Amino acid sequence: MAENTTIATNFVQNAIEEDQKNGKYTEGIHTRFPPEPNGYLHIGHAKSICLNFGLAEYNHGLCNLRFDDTNPTKEDTEYVDSIQEDIRWLGFSWQNRMYYASDYFDKLYDYAVELIKKGLAYVDDLTADQIKEYRGTLTEPGKESPYRNRSVEENLDLFARMKAGEFGDGEKVLRAKIDMASPNMVMRDTVIYRIAHAHHHRTGDKWCIYPMYDFAHPLSDAIEGITHSVCTLEFEEHRPFYDWLLENLGFDVNTRPRQIEFARLNLTNTVTSKRKLRQLVEEGHVRGWDDPRMPTISGLRRRGFTPASLRKFCEEIGVAKGNSLVDVAMLESCVRADLNENADRIMAVLRPLKVVITNYPEDKEEWLLGDNNPMHGGHRFIPFSREIYIEQEDFMEDAPKKFFRLKPGGEVRLKHAYIIKCEEVIKDEQGNVVELRCTADLDSKTGGATAGRKVKGTIHWVAAKTAVPAEVRLYDYLLETDENGNLPEDFIGALNKNSLEIIDNALVEPSVKLQAAGKHYQFLRTGYFVIDPDTTPDKLVFNRVVGLKDTWAKEKKKG
Known about the structure:
single chain, alpha/beta, Rossmann fold, Glutamyl-tRNA Synthetase, domain 2, CATH 2.40.240.10, 3 domains, seven-stranded mixed beta sheet, 27% helix, 24% strand
């Protein structure tokens, strides 16, 4: 296995090595990726997936996939299925170790009973608003609930009745009994069970009480034998409760999980809050979770990002202890580098302008040779005939001196073909240019007598007879930020009205016929594109993945 230098040098790996040096976790390293199945995974989750599975691989250990499905009102099997697909697509495998927090509901209930018996948990009748009020502030201690000193017997009875469904939602909760004066707000008698008469996607109606994430997560880790519970920085203040819970339930300090936090991924022009992404979907600002403008893994996949590019991006940004903002240009640079090496080249005309080559025989058609990709070789045949299409922007009637494409009386080389000269400009009644009449130097193609003749411009084209119609979707950033890359508090107000442009009359080479969704191409001089799943045998649809210009690579080179 090739050494993963990012894993080898990050602070999480250093902590793992220190633990092993101190004689902990002698049975081996065991990590987990623990998504909540309440939405689709996003680019931030990709970082966590690469880290958790990468740590396990580097240390010859194991990594579980575990769904923390403790909130039935927001969870769905659709999300469970999409999460599995995303992890596999990224190139990782949990083998036969897929679990759910709901697998442990009976055990978790027993652990809660054990805390009650130890006098470390109590049933509280305060409402959610009252609990918040009693909790105090960062500068003032909280107040004890009037129900805090119920007897063990009363708490056991009430908790059993909660489980039996005797009380309504919000009527009672179970809280850990810790310290209402703790400087850490999480330790002020955190709620560990609440009542929710809701149908669960796996357990059905068996339960009407559900463990809170802070209770279920550390215990699920411990049950599965996880050694290192790697999570994002917002859980740092939850770590004391994580440790308190495992200590008071008797888990051995040398084998119980250790929580380590790392900085979450923040990208410019992007939101990675599942709540905000759900809002974009539910309010119809995008076409769904896999809209190519979304930062979800399924959206990035449909946009045309590759697994290798996302893994490379996660490697490039590294693992830090402090939050920072990463330029989205860095992500684009990673996919551009991957596609530059692996995507076949073709010619496509997005905004066609007709060209008639008047000295080329009307009934003639020839097949010219073009390279597929200069990085790995291969060739394709390109049909050529009397009538072709070029890009509208490759012709200018009143051209400035340094315009090296086609202009009246000017010459340009057609990629893989002839040098042509513009002899006549045809316009419609409104004065719009609709056709160019050109002549070709018929000896200027490869192998011809004037093949080496130099002209300053080279443009792409497609033959009119054989060009394939296509719809091309040009994507831009979904959100607009200020000059510092920050989004306003009302992120909906930052939606980019020009985040999608659809061109429905593009033309591409016939070599793309019958290619399946997911096939990548570089459209010469235009950018990188992928065939979209909306494609049918009668209609080709392309998404632009990214343009050709790599601003991030240039900045990196300068640095």
